[in-house]
Amino acid sequence: MGKKGKKEKKGRGAEKTAAKMEKKVSKRSRKEEEDLEALIAHFQTLDAKKTQIVETPCSPPSPRLNASFSAHPEKDELILFGGEYFNGQKTFLYNELYIYNIRKDTWTKVEIPNPPPRRCAHQAVVVPQCGGQLWIFGGEFASPNGEQFYHYKDLWVLHLATKTWEQVRSPGGPSGRSGHRMVAWKRQLILFGGFHESTRDYIYYNDVYAFNLDTFTWSKLSPLGTGPTPRSGCQMSVTPQGSIVIYGGYSKQRVKKDVDKGTQHSDMFLLKSEEGKEGRWIWTRINPSGAKPIPRSGFSVAMAPNHQTLLFGGVCDEEEEESLEGDFLNDLHFYDAIKNRWFAGQLKGPKSEKRKRRRGPKAEPLGADKPECGGPSTLAPLEVVREVVAEDGTVVTIKQVLSAPGPVGQPQSDEDDSPEEAGSPVVEPSPRSNAMLTVKHGRLYLYGGMFEAGDRQVTLSDLYCLDLHKMDEWTALVEADPETQEWLETDSEEDSDVGEGAEGGEEDEDSGEDSGEEDGEPQHPLVMPGEQFTDYLPRTEQYWVRLARDDAGPDAKEKRVLKVAHAMAKTFFDDSA
Fold first, then answer.
1. Span 202-231, pLDDT tens digits
2. DSSP letters of 454-469?
3. Is 147 helix (H, G, I), strand (E, B) or coil?
4. DSSP assignment string, 324-346
5. pTM of the model
6. Are 416 and 354 in contact (CB under 8 A)?
7. Each residue of 408-466: pLDDT tens digit?
8. Which domains does the chain have, with CATH numbers?
9. Which of 286, 293, 287 is nearest to 271 (CA)?
10. What is the number of alpha carbons within 13 Å of residue 522 lying toward its C-beta?
């Protein structure tokens, strides 16, 4: 009894510490979130002016990451919502809705009145009710300079049959967060983890919430047993037995002042509802066998056929106190919950008609159509090293780890393959993290994501497809050339004029004045119809002044701070035009 009481007391102490930390983070971040609320409110005002549904055929969406990509439950369509893009100087957030028609290979931009505010790193879950519903929770909005964050705690539903957005207001839900995970379980949405970050503090979560799709009510679950430590970006999927699997993820903790240490988790847990005891859940740690993925963050997850969970890509960080290097990946792994086993996803490669006629069904061993046939191989993974030349002439080396091809992927003999086939380039997604995945009719669709080349972040807009039954080869549906992507260096003169504030000297003040109201400003989509830049600024001046004061320094005169604020806001308008 004594030991049990001591353990319970320790558990309550940990809960108090977590609650205290959350309160501290909440207090410090409240001020900066209030600044961003003005900007978010303005965007919502503009969205509210849209009173009709407008569907416009369009080219593929622009590059982005941390969006949601979902399969329509009834139609041959994929739904892309939100996301973010960084061009080296400014962060862009989206609340655009795109529909990809699989059969026609066409994109449509759908503008619906009163959508959710712009966001990324949210979660989206599709359920079949009422002709299909897309449920979205949380995510984050960032300031243009990417240094301030607003974390949402709102819940939205897109009614796919009527193409209408609805915000569902229900008390008792999770706090504001991003990087969390959410799945549909029976008639509920189950949400786990995530993080909240402000300029100076952050906190990671390991709490669990359930939202009832019948009563539209939230409840916080208190599972028994020892569960995962706080984390974000993990794998969360429902098993055929009705349990929920949590794998991996990322978290960081402060080891000393201004020094954080990140952790790429590789543990796995099972969250199971106790039979006959409604609302009672229990955590169990499990140790799967097989070819386990190497620890990583930023990987993408989708549900493969036969209720297997598919994991793609990510980045394996090598972190030191003063530096962070990462190897971006494009490998595939499957987790079979029934066997509690990992399998490496190995592609067989294209086959010629000649080989099919000669061998017929004998060309493939029993069960070759199943992902689990890509089990552990006697061959070691292959490491491909390539060099990318950045715009500034810097040569950056990118290491790519590929799974070794299995026996079915090897040519059987020289006479089976023509020289053209032997020398044809392999089509596959480049190594990346934070890509979007979804599965429809047994086909895996992969969109966008990012990788880094030196100090440059390359955001992708390509679309690939892989038949998970055949597991032969990737098909490129939309190709993109990263070399053509805009990248603005942060140390340019233009950037220092605006961002460095008082450090720029007298020339900066002149630059600030030149960017002021004397010049005629073109109408900008962020400005209300009929307004000029000078009409818009007063409503959000507090936001820009606060950013400018941070850059100008505590000793800067108020007039100087105001000039810098005007210059920053004006540059934001001009760059977004």
1. 999 999 999 999 999 999 999 999 999 999
2. TTEEEEEEEEEEEETT
3. coil
4. EEEEEEEEEEEEETTTTEEEEE-
5. 0.72
6. yes
7. 333 333 444 443 444 567 899 999 999 999 999 999 999 999 999 888 999 999 999 99
8. 51-347+429-481 (2.120.10.80), 533-576 (no CATH)
9. 286
10. 8
